[in-house]
Amino acid sequence: MRDRLRELELLAPARDADIAIAAIDHGADAVYIGGPSFGAREKAGNSVADIERAVRHAHRFGARIFVTLNTILRDDELEDARRLVWQLHGAGVDALIVQDMGLLELDLPPMQLHASTQTDIRTPEKARFLQDVGFSQMVLARELTLPQIQAIRAQVDRAVIEFFVHGALCVAYSGLCNISHALTGRSANRGSCSQECRQAYTVTDAAGHIIAHDKHVLSLKDNDQSANLRALVDAGVRSFKIEGRYKDVGYVKNVTAHYRRLLDEILDGQKPRDGRGLRAASSGRTTLFFTPDPERNFNRGATDYFVTGRKEDIGAFDTPKYAGLPLGEVTATGPEHVDVQLADGVGALANGDGLTWWDLQGELNGVQANTARPLDGDAATARRWRVMPNEPVAELKDLRRGTTLYRNREMAWDRTLDSKTAERRIAVDLRLDETGDGLLLTLTDEDGHVGQAELATALQPARDAARAEATLREAIAKLGTTIFAAREVELATTEPWFVPVGALNQLRRDAVAALEAARAAAWQPLPRAVPVAPPVPYPEDTISYLANVYNHKARDFYARHGVQVIESAYESHEVLGEASLMVTKHCVRFSLSLCPKQAKGVTGVQGTIRAEPLVLKHGNDLLTLRFDCKPCEMHVVGRMQPHVLREATAQLQAAQAQAVPMQFYRSRPAPAARR
Questions:
Q1: How far is the CA of 280 from the CAs of 27, 56, 193, 264, 604, in angstroms?
Q2: Cα(138)–Cα(144) distance, rounded to whole angstroms?
Q3: 137-162 residues labelled b (16+ CB within 10 A) or e (exposed)
Q4: 623-630 contacts: CB < 8 A, separation 24 or more?
Q5: Alpha carbon distance 399, 359 (integer Å)
Q6: Pfam families of this UniProt entry (predicted)?
């Protein structure tokens, strides 16, 4: 069994099986994908049959498929979840990504378990506990710094440390956000987040003074750890995770290819340590037919968040939308057209491109180019363009001469990503030998697997030895339609015999089939970790609703590990008053330059600024921001909306008439039904 702690794994997202296959082809060592139910992205589910198709493709390259079963479950859902896990095991899935500890109390197949980001792993004690109860891989909280990751690595000696390196950021510690459920009834812990953090809020202080008006103060820029990969490797990270199970195939191709390049640079440039260095977690090498550029995909700007320390500029406060890349400047407008001067280095405009600009109120606006034609020269050289937008120019707010333009959709780029953009091949060495009956072709791949095939034929001397040798080499190395690429070709024959090309082609095909069979026969599933016995104690003896215990099996799990007081999940509706609906490392006061720590050293200010609560307002929704300055955290406080409780009560009453009624864990007796 390979040592996974010496492997670097690029872990890509997939909305469906086709995207999963594209991710593998573009260099992913593993892909995470949702099953038909119980995934934290409810609109990104896939049938078991489709997942099996992705598994077959991944395993050819030694890559893995992980399935997300990472929502919290009611008691009446546990049996369906258990049956699904067995089906996924039968489909060859390599691991489950889970949040609900109740699953560990079920009769599961010997599948590897990975701890979801929803399990909120921020401390060495929590990480060590999860390793000791049977998790083989765990994704740490995005908010951690390099020293904090190192501290966890020091305590976790068997499990793989996984970390998000790219994509959208949840502003809350994952698993500690109940705003969506409180305000809309849609639970983020059950895969249905309404993204209240992307809304615009007005921020007021205790005196009612407006500090920020209609700003997206809970909306963050997107994660980008491109510059920190080497440091993360040194800190102990071994799985590098890309966010985006809702994203399209173009995003997955582009971002996967980008990080594949960066990780390959690290692997190619490493110095062996005690004779054994790090290696990629799967086989083969990806050749790209385009230049990856993550900035061309939807993003809200880039931040490395807290990895290298707290930054002031992590928010996407002006808009949660994608402004795009700089395009140029408006030089003139007419009733039906806009003239544009392209900036230096910007590629040609095209029909269908998306143009954006900021109006005088600081709002992002956008329009699509119905047609675009050059005003000087041809499309390849023109710097001035006339654009006919798909809306009347008079209705395009504040679009006038001198306006700076951006492009958030580039049709030429989309067409590039729609084409074949990569191929992945496994290196093989080929050797042709003579036998008593003819020829023997041996293929040895980069992992040491061997496939052989024989050709029974009477060997005939060639009239033209040089040409015969070239034919032999070309025929046996012709691997273009396979997953293999020739690295070395050795002719170990006494002379370059004449052999019909058709016979050589069949010999090569038989050897390739034998090599694929050998690789399949050598495949080993990831082992299930054995929990430490007797059961290790949980780091705390009391857990609140933020631990998300929603079924009795989860309650039994924590009790078995020494927890004395176990509150039920927020979704059980036992927390009805004001509560922390979100806990976050992001601090609005800090981002608005109102943090008391920022005032230290400023004459006449030190000691006069306090971290008093602020209020967020969006429509009729009011939320209070409270600041815990010792751990440097912010709590977003609010209460569950009455309509959420009414709808939940009606749903529960309707479910009681079903064959399997709705049932979930309560830490207190259920209220008596009204008559």
A1: 10, 19, 34, 8, 56
A2: 14
A3: bbbbbbbbebebbbbbbeebeebbbb
A4: 623/179, 623/201, 623/581, 624/578, 625/203, 625/588, 625/589, 627/587, 627/589, 629/596, 629/597
A5: 7
A6: DUF3656, Peptidase_U32
Distance CA 96, CA 553 (A): 18
* Six-digit token string for 578: 């004001």
Which two structure tokens, joined as six digits, stand for 375? 């005003």
Q: What is the CATH number of domain 4-169+223-282?
A: 3.20.20.70
- Rounded CA separation 259/334 (Å): 44
Where does CATH 3.20.20.70 sit in the chain? 4-169+223-282
* CA–CA separation, 579 and 570 (whole Å): 10
Render pLDDT for 186-237 as a digit per residue (tens, 0 to 9).
999 999 999 999 999 999 998 999 999 999 999 999 999 999 999 999 999 9
Cα–Cα distance between 12 and 65 in angstroms, integer? 10
Is residue 473 a contact partner of residue 489, using CB atoms and an 8 Å limit?
yes
Residue written as token pair 């020739």: 486
Look up residue 329 and give its amino acid. E
Beta bridge partners of 204: 210, 615
Instruction: Give the contacts of 480 (CB within 8 A, at least 6 positions apart).
Output: none
DSSP string, 598-644: HHTT-TTTTTT-----EEEEETTEEEEEEEETTTTEEEEEE---HHH
The pLDDT tens digits of the residues spanning 499-537 come to 999 999 999 999 999 999 999 999 999 999 999 999 999
| 3-state SS assignment for residue 216 | coil
The tokens describing 515, both together, are 């090599």
> Options 3.40.50.2000, 2.40.10.170, 3.40.50.300, 1.10.10.10; which CATH number does 312-418 get?
2.40.10.170
